[in-house]
Amino acid sequence: MDPIVKLKTYIVEDNATIRENLIGTLEELASVESVGAAATEDEGKSWLAAHPAHWDLAIVDLFLRQGSGLGVLAACRKRLPHQRMVVLSNYATPDVRVRCAQLGVDAVFDKSNEIDALIDYCIAQSDAARPSPID
Prior knowledge:
- Helices cover about 40% and strands about 20% of the residues.
- The mean pLDDT is about 90.
- The chain is an alpha/beta fold.
- The two termini are about 25 Å apart.
- The protein has 5 helices and 5 strands; from the N terminus they run E-H-E-H-E-H-E-H-E-H.
- It comes from Simplicispira metamorpha.
- Pfam families: Response_reg (PF00072).
- InterPro entries: Bact_response_regulator, CheY-like_superfamily, Sig_transdc_resp-reg_receiver.
């Protein structure tokens, strides 16, 4: 039997309650391992730049306490081929979705009604993941 591959996930979300609930839900339902979290654009960009090979999925909110999730997304355009960037926002409007696509985002989910779709996405990514070589 193949071992379960946990998706190493980094979350950029400034609301602590949402962040903790999201981490708990994804770890329980979607074979996700949280490798860190940030509440601001600077924290998110700094961690992702310092750990370029230590994450598989970044989940980014657009409106942050400091800066914007768009800055985090732009900073990760040159990520490794297996890494995925998704947006989880209350403002998943058609214009926002277009801007996110321009930044190379893999998917956009609305916080108000697409959490199940995010969970399904994480499950699919985990199922597709291959064991990474030892660093």
